[in-house]
Design goal:
Length: 362
């Protein structure tokens, strides 16, 4: 377990298919693909690609209320499946929606999930926590800010919110029903574990280091610093140089090392934490992350989509993935600003990095 002083990272995993005929999802559900589940007071949106203008596919929905906030809160990520678009930031959209409990109560009664429906949020695995909300009639949970998973003991007092014009946040979006030609990806549930609970990681690391040392002694080589700042001698130097030539820098090696305990992770959540870049980020990355268009405040890193998600992004009956990307990083308003009674989602910032290996095949 991570100490209180450490950043707590939550790992999202695919938890089986979501059959809409047997289980009706809502904005409280963490899922991949399918149709976006909008909050009751939020206008339906049909975002289009900022590059080619095509309708975007719904990629991921994450229910992520913030600690000590009276609002429900959901993020929707959309992307263009075009061959030249999916790896480009301008072809992605992130929309944040919020509503108060009283607004959510206006939602019609939800149907009871079928008997063989997937497990609820708190049943994902023995050591996993839900994403911050108490289980509600079998519906999925959400992420709490700073990843502090605890039950609410009372409803927080509503905070005063100034009247804010959010129209500027919805550029390149069209109102109304979703476009008929918008691609629909196969839906999957997302379950979650804490990265620190991924089972025996300390022992595994020590065992791996011991095996590496034995290999170095047996073969007379030094390969222990493949992702470090200095190249090793002998065959170790050769392998290091090949790694550098293939990926351009050591960032990719660090990325792979970080996710090696759980390569199947499809999402990483750590609001206010540090993103895990798959390749060297631009030197002006801090300037690229624009301020919130609604309140003018800063944005903070919240979550990122991982390479293992790519293979899941298929249409029904499709054999190939619809999208190609390395990682998609989402930055949201630090204050999570929201105008009381607003019916419009707020657009956040998404930065996409391509998989370095894709360049080998072009």
């Amino acid at each position: 377990m991570a100490s209180p002083a450490q950043e707590l990272t939550l790992i999202g995993l695919c938890d089986g298919g979501l059959d809409p005929k047997r289980y009706q999802s809502s904005y409280l559900t963490n899922k991949v693909g399918g149709q976006p589940d909008w909050m009751p007071a939020i206008s339906r949106l049909s975002p289009r690609c900022g590059s080619c203008g095509a309708p975007l596919a719904h990629v991921v929905q994450v229910y992520c209320p913030l600690e000590a906030s009276p609002y429900h809160r959901t993020l929707h990520l959309f992307a263009c499946p075009g061959a030249e678009c999916s790896g480009r930031s301008e072809s992605w959209r992130v929309l944040r929606s919020q509503c108060l409990e009283v607004e959510a109560a206006q939602t019609p009664s939800r149907p009871v999930p079928a008997q063989d429906a997937p497990l609820a949020a708190t049943d994902w695995c023995d050591t996993a926590d839900d994403w911050g909300m108490e289980e509600e009639d079998g519906w999925g949970g959400g992420v709490k800010e700073e990843s502090k998973v605890q039950k609410e003991t009372e409803t927080p007092k509503a905070q005063a919110a100034s009247e804010i014009d959010v129209s500027t946040c919805l550029q390149d979006l069209s109102l109304g029903e979703p476009q008929d030609d918008a691609p629909i990806l196969r839906p999957f549930f997302i379950s979650v574990v804490e990265e620190s609970d991924l089972g025996g990681e300390k022992d595994d690391l020590q065992h791996a280091q011991q095996l590496l040392k034995e290999y170095e002694r047996r073969e007379g080589v030094a390969v222990g610093e493949l992702d470090g700042d200095e190249a090793c001698g002998g065959r170790g130097e050769e392998r290091y140089e090949k790694t550098r030539a293939r990926h351009g820098d050591a960032v990719f090696s660090r990325f792979m090392k970080k996710i090696s305990l759980c390569p199947q992770q499809i999402l990483r959540y750590c609001r206010g934490g540090k993103p895990l870049f798959i390749s060297e980020p631009p030197s002006n990355m801090a300037q690229l992350v624009s301020v919130c268009a609604t309140c003018g405040g800063s944005r903070t890193f919240e979550l990122q989509l991982m390479p293992a998600l790519v293979s899941l992004l298929q249409r029904d009956g499709g054999a190939e993935a619809e999208l190609e990307f390395g990682t998609a990083l989402v930055y949201t308003c630090t204050n999570s600003c929201w105008a009381a009674g607003s019916g419009s989602a707020v657009e956040e910032f998404c930065f996409v990095q391509a998989d370095p290996d894709q360049q080998l095949f072009k």
